[in-house]
Amino acid sequence: MTKFLKTASLAVIVGVLAMNSADAADKVRVAMLVKSLGNGFFEACKEGGIEASNELGNVELIYTGPTTATAEGQIELMNALIAQKVDAIAISANDADALVPVAKKAAERGIKVISFDSGIASGRLLQLNPSNASLIGQKQVQMALDAVGKAGGDVAILSATAQATNQNIWIAEMKKELAKPEFSSLKLVSTVYGDDQADKSYRETQGLLKSFPNLKAIIAPTSVGIVAAAKAVADQGLIGKVYVTGLGLPSEMKGHVQSGATKSFAIWNPVDLGYTAVYAAVQFTKGELKGKAGEKVPVGRMGTLTIDDKGEAAMAEPFTFDKDNVLKYAKYF
Amino acid sequence: MTNFNLTPLPPYSFTWGLRLMRRWEVLLAVLLLLVMVGNSFLSPYFLDPYNLADATANFTEKAMIALPMALLIIVREIDISVASIMALASLLIGLAAEAGVGVPGLVAIGLLTGLAAGLLNGTLIAGLGLPSIVVTIGTLSLFRGITAVVLGDRAITAYPEAFTDLATMKVIPFVSLEFALFLALAAVFALVLHGTVIGRRLYAIGLNPTAARFSGLNVRRTKLVLFTLTGLLAGLAAVFLTARIGSTRPNIASGWELEIITMVILGGVSIAGGAGTIGGVVLAVFLLGMAGFGMGLVNVPGIVMSTLIGLLLLIAVAVPQLLARFRRGGEG
Q1: CB B254 to CB A70 under 8 A?
Q2: Total domain count for chain B?
Q3: Is pTM, for the whole model, over 0.95?
Q4: Which of A137, A191, A224, A253 is most buried, with most CB under 10 Å away?
Q5: Whole domain around residue B277: which residue ranges?
Q6: With a cut of 0.90, is the ipTM above it?
Q7: Is B44's Cβ below 8 Å from some Cβ in A?
Q8: Does residue A98 sit at the B interface (CB-CB below 8 Å)?
């Protein structure tokens, strides 16, 4: 019996080997490797990826990721993708360095690797950032002006910690924008720090509302701060007098948008990010793009990416959410 | 002290339980064959020497620790702190690399950290007589906690190239240094467990610790040595994992203890102690490794993989029990 099994399986293996050599893959196979499965943000990226592959046609999208967000899990999956000889990989990495050797190995075997959202340090052709600091600063000031109207008025900023690198860069950009003539009607009266804690952000907002009775808008470039500020405005009965805007998550902000404490807020749109990542990855498989500074990558409905001298590119200004679209996105993130 | 008797045991001296395990190995081998054949059908990329060589890297470090873990489980103990020992060893290797220590020094630090952590487990368990599951739950949190406190949200990535090359080094084409080392270790473990009096003592302790002690076996010292050995091999695994990914983060190797114990139990080692073979564990390592790699090739989501492996494990635990019950029922 065992002898028969051995002979039979040997025959099967030989047969399969013969069949496999004739396997033809003419579709462009692109893998989207995310930090972990079951994360709403990446599920939304996947939606965008599917949209891009349908639009481009002849693209097979492989959506994968480890069950827990670890570098080891992603390396294992990278090995599996390399083994399948996919044409391109777009990865959001759990570790900027640990994925570099395996990304280089993929490149050696002719696979085009790009990173998006959370980048890898090297070994990729492009790091796709959802946005950049100046676009983020500009967007928030614009939303504040839209909320209070042409007449303008006093605005304040509620940030995370005083040392938060990202927030400080964005605040500097906002100040640059406020200095421009089109925003001259807005007057920045104060910047306070809620340390990304809900209760401290809430108390700082209460302080702002007391100290500046003519306050018209609060800009909170942090997803914790914006929720706390909107709640404080609502609790003080100031809905319609003081508007909260900034960067937030649709799932956390939908209530405040519906109550009117917030007219609009922004964040990078993960659907657009997934769309752009897959679209760009496919462009690299055509062989003309090398990932050099100054190269332009066409990305369909999102326009064109320009690669900078660090091999990075910014997708777009943050996407605006208001009462018309917040519920649609709230189910993702 | 110990007198090495290398003559193999005559087959009739195995208990019926061991004979059952031998059949379990045949079952594992058949399953492994089925998985290989199934994978080659499902994916055209499976039977490719480069790919199979890459695939071994995914499980070799876990497999190294499965060997001493099998011995521990045979003597009715368990060490669930192994992945945290790896994290601690990787941390110290990383700090040493940042201080400019050379490759032999880094390897030595990894091994010594593992050894010391294992010795601590062993002293608490064998010395103070504490239950191993409680002690190693404690050290699991302790070792991982130290790593997290020292690293914070930082990662150590400053590894010299000569160190990270350890992971890609090939002894012969397609066989990496770490995989060759695992095979050599497996041979040594099999020889000691199945061919020497030391192995027979381990089974004796697992089958009945009290009787073993009254027969003059030094149960405590044996357990101390086994925990230290487990720590040492966790240190060795940490050396290779750190070299392979070139980065130390607080969550390095997290959750591996369960995968390692899965290899051992699926390999037919009885969780009640006293039974199991190294051959079975090695077969289970390959079975899990090949099944995981094959599922990866056809992009089965990780959560489905875990579910299937969980099912496999339940079957592995339930089948011998059911067979034993059936046998007893038949007799009485």
Answers
A1: yes
A2: 1
A3: no
A4: A253
A5: 11-324
A6: no
A7: yes
A8: yes
